[in-house]
Amino acid sequence: MARATGCGTECGTYEATCPNTVFHASRTSAQAYLADRVGLDAQILDQDAAIERGRWNFGSLLSEPA
After folding, report:
1. Whether the Cβ atoms of residue 1 and residue 20 lie closer than 8 Å to each other
2. CA-CA to 38 of 20 to 30 Å: which in 3, 29, 32, 55?
Protein backbone atom coordinates (compact mmCIF):
# COMPACT_ATOMS: atom_id res chain seq x y z
CA MET A 1 0.00 0.00 0.00
CA ALA A 2 1.44 3.37 -0.91
CA ARG A 3 0.57 7.01 -1.31
CA ALA A 4 2.12 9.34 -3.84
CA THR A 5 4.07 11.82 -1.73
CA GLY A 6 3.08 14.80 -3.88
CA CYS A 7 -0.69 14.24 -3.96
CA GLY A 8 -1.36 16.87 -1.27
CA THR A 9 -3.72 16.70 1.64
CA GLU A 10 -6.94 17.28 -0.30
CA CYS A 11 -7.02 13.95 -2.14
CA GLY A 12 -9.26 11.14 -0.99
CA THR A 13 -7.91 7.80 0.16
CA TYR A 14 -8.93 6.10 -3.08
CA GLU A 15 -7.16 8.81 -5.12
CA ALA A 16 -3.93 8.39 -3.19
CA THR A 17 -3.96 4.62 -2.77
CA CYS A 18 -5.60 3.14 -5.87
CA PRO A 19 -2.90 3.99 -8.45
CA ASN A 20 -0.27 2.68 -6.05
CA THR A 21 -1.87 -0.62 -5.06
CA VAL A 22 0.35 -3.41 -6.32
CA PHE A 23 0.24 -7.06 -5.27
CA HIS A 24 3.33 -9.22 -4.86
CA ALA A 25 3.83 -12.89 -4.10
CA SER A 26 6.47 -12.19 -1.45
CA ARG A 27 7.80 -9.46 0.84
CA THR A 28 11.13 -9.67 -1.03
CA SER A 29 9.41 -8.92 -4.33
CA ALA A 30 7.56 -5.95 -2.80
CA GLN A 31 10.79 -4.58 -1.33
CA ALA A 32 12.54 -4.83 -4.72
CA TYR A 33 9.61 -3.05 -6.39
CA LEU A 34 9.77 -0.18 -3.90
CA ALA A 35 13.55 0.10 -4.15
CA ASP A 36 13.13 0.96 -7.84
CA ARG A 37 10.56 3.71 -7.25
CA VAL A 38 10.90 7.08 -5.61
CA GLY A 39 8.12 9.37 -4.47
CA LEU A 40 6.05 6.78 -2.66
CA ASP A 41 5.29 6.77 1.03
CA ALA A 42 4.81 3.00 1.22
CA GLN A 43 4.05 0.22 3.65
CA ILE A 44 4.22 -3.49 2.84
CA LEU A 45 1.19 -5.31 4.26
CA ASP A 46 0.67 -9.00 4.85
CA GLN A 47 -2.38 -10.61 3.23
CA ASP A 48 -4.73 -10.23 6.21
CA ALA A 49 -3.82 -6.57 6.72
CA ALA A 50 -4.17 -5.89 2.97
CA ILE A 51 -7.68 -7.39 2.91
CA GLU A 52 -8.74 -5.35 5.93
CA ARG A 53 -7.24 -2.14 4.51
CA GLY A 54 -8.93 -2.79 1.16
CA ARG A 55 -12.30 -3.10 2.87
CA TRP A 56 -11.65 0.07 4.85
CA ASN A 57 -10.50 2.11 1.82
CA PHE A 58 -12.76 0.79 -0.93
CA GLY A 59 -15.68 -0.92 0.81
CA SER A 60 -18.09 2.00 0.36
CA LEU A 61 -17.36 2.07 -3.38
CA LEU A 62 -18.56 -1.52 -3.69
CA SER A 63 -21.84 -1.19 -1.76
CA GLU A 64 -25.23 -1.15 -3.44
CA PRO A 65 -26.82 2.27 -4.03
CA ALA A 66 -29.49 3.20 -1.47
Report:
1. yes
2. 55
